[in-house]
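Format is sequence with structure; example below:
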Amino acid sequence: MTDSSSTQTQKPVLIIEPGRTEKNYWTDLWRYRELFLILAWRDISVRYKQTIIGILWAIIRPFLTMVVFTIIFGRIAKLPSDGSAPYALMVFAAMLPWSLFSNALSESSNSLISNANLIGKVYFPRLIIPAATLVTAFIDFLISFIILIGMTVYYQFAPGWQMLLCRFSSSWPCWPAWDPVSGLRRST
């Protein structure tokens, strides 16, 4: 009876050897998906729960940036707004992909530095750490996108059919930010 119970409790053995990581990399990413979720939740928690103004910061920061850009470029520099879109709406819509790219690149790069001791101590696919920080940048993007929808209602501006492409193009700013991180996959 003890022989059958000992065979049922055996865990799979992870063998780390040269050349094997490339072959099993995507399998390892799937195997460590719970670590990805834990790290993503940790980053979200640090960003929104442990600050004084919390999630309000994700609303205030892009809104104030839009106000400053509108005042400087629209009022002081008097740069024209081609088309029928209000200047503030045009500035805010242009800031969305840039802020996603900027946040994704800076946070994914900084995550490698801030988690250096974790990377050195435990084996897991190194791509998980920067990928988890991309979740936080994308949540900021979604919050800003909701603000953009509110601004279109406020200005009573109905975007054209091209706005439907925004859903498909919203992930493109993450790909350049992913490129330096994917070099990590090749180096481990």
Q: What stands out?
A: Residues 87-114 form the longest helix (28 residues). Residues 21-187 form one domain.
